[in-house]
Each structure stands twice: as structure tokens, then as C-alpha cells.
Amino acid sequence: MAKSYEISSKRFKFNAVGQVLLAFLGVFGLLSLFSNSYKIAAPEAFRPAPTIGKVTMIYGNMSIYERTLETHKEHNRRLGYPLTVLRSPILNGIWNKLAILQSVLLRELEKPADQRLQWLFWFDGDTVLMNPDMPLETFLPPPELPNAHLLVSRDWNGLHSGVFFLRVHPWSVELLSAAIAYPVVKPNVGLIWFEQSAICNVLAENEYFARSTVYCPLRWFNAYMRHPNGIDINPDNPLHLQVHPGDLLVHFPGTPKANLTRTLTPYLEIAASHSRHWEVPLEETRYIEETKRFWADLRFGSSGRITSIPEPIDADGAEGI
User: Fold this and answer.
1) What tens digit of pLDDT does each residue of 60-105 get?
2) For residue 241, is pLDDT > 80?
3) pTM for the full model?
4) Which of 53, 206, 213, 232 has CA 20 to 30 A from 119's CA?
5) Where are the transmembrane segments (predicted)?
């Protein structure tokens, strides 16, 4: 009897230990599962509300634009930018750019101030996002410059409206309204570059708009192509206009539609490869210091107008990230 009791006691102890062990393993498994789920969900669950929205338009049978759009979608996926794509024309031709921007602006301004986007980032369809790890916030003005509403770049033709930032603000509604109405209000004025020329004229003719416009270095967010192979530098173009590893995107203005696929494909292939050489984290680029210095050195002219002419980057500097 004593022996039987001893065996039963051992079995009881074994069962108790086994149950505790199984319970521990079960809890550990749940914690592990929760932990894994948490790691996956954390970036989305704890990502702050976006302050910048991206806007573009794509319509017609141009598959190359769908491919370029995928590079921007990867950027959005990593950094959480909402995207608006106009798929059906509202006005004629390129004027749809201003129409969809106006639409998004008004929609945002209808919201309570603390729920709005703060900026819109326009990009033309012929841009390839090269560094999806580059935050758009990098290029925005500091809080002490609340009247900087349009961030744009310029080249040898002057202002270039292919890629730019526009603050969500009534000023922007007025600017777009003036530009959209320009060919109607002044039908005798020739607009070589259509909506781009309209914006240029509105800025030139109205100090109210000009004094809130900042011309940023083109390479920040509107860099042009380098060599056709996407790898080598083009010795025939200024270095400070050519895209470099770590830069946000590359733009192909003026490329005929018939040549778009051939011209953009090498850059699309680089973007699709997600090469560490091109996808450089912000802290490893020159942009933290460069943008800080740019905004600190910004000068104001007559009537409070913001005036800034970026100095060309020398050959040595242009090669640096």
C-alpha cells in the first residue's frame, strides 16, 4: 500500500509539473505570438498621422507611368504618405494638375485644423522615386517660416513645376485659382509652358504670391537624369542638377513620349533593385545639414519677399551623398 501511494504521489507530482510546464509553454507561445504580431503591427499602429499628402495624375494608355507610380507607392508604404491620383480629366490637358491640387486642398481645408494634411507634394508622372527611405519632411521649412507656402525649383528655363510642395493654406487656393484662370483673364498672353508659365506669370505680377515662394536647390526633390544608363555621370550637364545616390527622385522633363520607356527603364530597374547604394538612410546623406543651412541662410528682400538662389555644388560636393 505504501509503495502504491508512493508511486501515485510521484505520478501526481509529475502531472502537476507537467501541467505547469504546459501552461508555461502555452503562455510563452501566446506572448511570442503577441510579440511577433506587435512587431509587425507596430509601424502601422503607432505611425503618427501623416502631415504630407502626395498628388499626381495618370490617365490614358501609358503603362510606363504605372511603373513609375509603383516606385512612389513603395515610398508611401514605407513612410505612410497618402496618395491622390487623378485618373479622369477635369479640365483640358496639363491644367488638370492644378485642378486636382485645388480639389485636394479644398477637401483638406474643410477638415478641422488638427486633422488636416499640412503640405501637398506634387510629382509629374515622368518621375522615378529612387530613395524610398528619404522623408519628404526633410525639405520643409522650419516653423519660424510660416509664410513660406510654395517650395519649388528652377533650371535654365526658370521655375519648374514638375515637382513641388504646396502648403495646405488659403494662400494656395488663391494661387491655384489665379493660375487656372490666367488664360481666361489674359487670353492674349502666350503661355509657352502652359500651367508652368501661368504660375510664373502670377508670381511675377503679384508680390503677394511671390513673397511666399521659395526656390530650393533642384537636386533636393526634382533632380534630372545623369547618363542614360543611370550609373555614370553625364559630363555635358551640370553636376548639381543630376540625380545622385541617396537623392529622392529623378525627373525626365522634355522627354518625348515615344522615348519615355527606353529612357526611364534603366532608372526603374535601379529603383526595383532596392540597392543599398541608392536607398541611403537620411542620416547618411548630406541633407540634414544642407537643408538646415539653407533655411538658416534664407534672405528676405523688399516687402518681405523670400529670395534664395542656391549656389551650384562643385564637382567634389556633387559626388558626395
Assistant:
1) 778 999 999 999 999 999 999 999 999 999 998 899 999 999 999 9
2) yes
3) 0.83
4) 206
5) 12-34
In angstroms, the CA 73 to CA 53 distance is: 12
Distance set, CA 275 to CA 52, 169, 270 (Å): 26, 38, 7
Between β-strands 223-224 and 52-57, what pairing exists: parallel, antiparallel or unpaired?
A: unpaired
Q: Round to whole Å and give the CA distance between 30 and 16.
A: 21
d(CA 238, CA 216): 16
Mark out the alpha helices in 186-253 (DSSP H runs): 195-205, 207-210, 218-221
DSSP code at position 53: E
The 10s digit of each residue's pLDDT in 153-166 is: 999 888 999 999 99
pLDDT digits (tens, 9 = 90+) for 185-204: 999 999 999 999 999 999 99
Helix (H) or strand (E) holding 119: strand 119-123
Residue 123, SS3 per DSSP? strand
- Helix (H/G/I), strand (E/B), else coil: 213: strand
The neighbour count for residue 269, using CB atoms within 10 Å, is: 12
